[in-house]
Amino acid sequence: MFADRHDAGRRLGQHLVDRLGFLVPAVRRPLVLALPRGGVPVGVPVAVALNGDLDIVIARKIAAPGQPEYGIGALAEDGPPVFDGRALEALGLSEADLSGAVEHERAEVGRRMLRYRAGRAAPEAHGRIVVVVDDGLATGVTARATLRWLHGHEPAYLVLAAPVCSRQAHDALAGDADVLACLRIPDEFRAVGDWYQDFRQLTDDDVTGLLTAT
Question: How does DSSP classify residue 200?
Answer without folding.
Answer: P
